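Chapter summary example.
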Amino acid sequence: MSLQVVSAVSNSSLLQPGFSLLNFDGHVFFFGQKGWPKRSCPTGVFLLDIKQNELKMKPAFFSKDSCYLPPLRYPALCTLRGNAESDEYQYVIHGGKTPNNDLSDKIYIMSLVSKNSKKTTFQCIEKDLGGDVPEARYGHTINVIHSRGKSMSVIFGGRSYTPLAQRTTEKWNSVVDCLPSVFLIDFEFGCCTSYILPELQDGLSFHVSVARNDTIYILGGHSLQNNTRFPSLYKLKVDLPLGSPAVTCTILPGGISVSSAIVTQTSDTEFVLVGGYQSDNQKRLVCNTIVLEDNKIDIVERASPDWTPDIKHCRMWFGCDMGKGSVLLGIPGANKQLISDANYFYILRCKGAEEDKEEELTAQICSQTSTEDPGDSTPFEDSEEFCFSAEANSFDVDDTDTYNEDDEEDESETGYWITCSASCNIDINTWVPFYSTELNKPAMILCSSRAGHWVHAQCMDLSESMLLRLSEANVKYFCNEHVDLNKGLQTPKKVVHLKKQPMKPLRKKTAMKLTTPTKKSFLRRLFE
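The structure predicted for these 528 residues follows.
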């Protein structure tokens, strides 16, 4: 096992406890944030690009026929294949917390549509369920089992809010353990069936589950009711005959007292358990190997990596499975860092260099990898109340739109972050999208003066309607510094004066001649 330090470039605040990682064809994608997605990445899904020990994030896109997928923290997810031997797979996402701290009861199917060095497109479909639909929850697990040529999903554990009838003003948002029911979901028909098994007495959350064929093993977990981490190990076996499914549970010895652990698969039958907490105030630094063979499970302790002093002495840690035997771990950053919510990140590789070339994973994994909620768990596992900042400058603005992956390292010279004019105020560290057409680069327009140069549309005080008009029309544009010079160099156009027709004078009305009485006639009339 090897531990590698990773430097996050301008976006470490995006990776906070509660996130999930999806692995499609060796490419790792980040999903789940506390705040609502911003316009710079409305999907809330990012490609994690790790090169030369630097971690960069590129926004991903959804197809037009996709449904809306809110950012969900602490959801349950696993891969879904047509059959146990299929190479093509999708991801199933169920439950989780929305940015408003509402719990989701929806289930989504996420698949990769296309990917190149410039753009990644997903399709997300919401599944309609009927029957015994699981209540909204988080901190639970979901797995896919295969039996007799058929497949079903199994949901177990988690936490939910106290029912409305039992809530009080003081504890309105308090959470409780979900009932220890096992839910079978048939995606083909969209129906759910719940099972109550006598072996499962207490609700569990933030446990680990590993599935192979028709069997699921549930390990560890935390119970809110008892505030304990039982060293439990359950074996769920699901048989899918022509009639009704049969679900059985067996309690096995050799469990581990752990919560919020991470599981990654290193081979067809071997898994590695790392991280988590073994008590209220103690992290679990021991690693284990889990081997599934012939309907049995073996859990043995293995050599742990050389943990750094920062990891050993940190108050909390979190992470997620990256797939193919690798785990992304995070610890809180020091207070002296410029960014208050910045974290340190490590990649733990559980396989050797030669083992990385093995065939793709075939077994299903589902583990709750983030630390538990602070309001409803122990103070040591306080990991939910954190700030989330997804400003546009958090994304790798230099290599999102490249077509050639080999040229990505040189894209800083493409000129988006130049000083375009004396009044330019575009800064790569503070810029946020101004126009609706912008994603993670500022809109620019070509000034046609002399040899021509590019300027930022925002620095030129262009309205969005004017910017669209200039981009669509075949006209020359001159920036604010060259528009007057351009007018002086232009030859004034000859102005054609219109010949005005003379206006006809109005006819004068003939004034009536009034006879003024003379003095004589006046006197004559006076004395008559």
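To summarize the output: Residues 335-340, 357-364, 369-414, 509-515 have pLDDT under 50 and may be disordered.
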